[in-house]
Amino acid sequence: MNESTRSPANPVDRMVAAKRALRGERRRLLAEARAFETFLDAVDDVPVATSPTTGGGQFLVGSGADRSGAAAVRRAYEDTVMDVFHYAADYDDTYPDSIAAEFGPDVASALLAGPFTDLCKRAVRTAASDARDRRTRFLATLDDERHSLEVAERPIRQLSTGLESLAASSSSRDPFDDRDAVRSTLVTMERRCKSVAADRQEAIQEHALTGSWRVDTSHVQEYLYADLESTYPVLATVADILSRIERRYECDERPLARA
Fold this sequence. Notes:
Layout: H1 13-44, H2 68-79, H3 87-90, H4 95-103, H5 105-113, H6 118-170, H7 179-206, H8 220-224, H9 233-258
């Protein structure tokens, strides 16, 4: 979603919305990681099929093969991974589609077409472990993003409050009073805004996605905040505050121009 040019009623509203989106994604991700862990425990208890032939190390397939193990794996998958609270809303796919996306086409084909051999069991465990570990790593990325938001939020709130205080005080005094002090305050605010923006840009690059997750973007913010007003809420809020500072500069210049 492209950043909107409109300003929220409160400049920190974007921050509040971003933290809410982040909490929601973390809750979903944690549920998925735990579901894969439970699935792995269930797979351990599924017996493997035996056969005099193993196809030279390939997954054993065939219409007459014993598929009870594969059926047990499917039930376990549907009762864990596909049973998380948000599955229908976020994925809404079928068992074949889901295991192909999570485990890859080879493991999915083996589960769908053949018996649950020892080789297949080991492949499923490896793939499910990878799926769990991807989510665990992404949880760490979300924790970094949460910390970055918290670091940025404090100065943003202070800057917003400072501008409101300047606006309130200017309405009750002569426009020529304390002009130098006001301008000095605005300069300090502007510098702090640019510092917050620079720190945020660094955090965005430092925590860029590496292709190990399920999204078609290199920036976690574009994934997390796609449904918000801005996909880069901190930068958008800083830009809004800088615009307010610029307008305040202009307002202070008008009385001088008329003098």
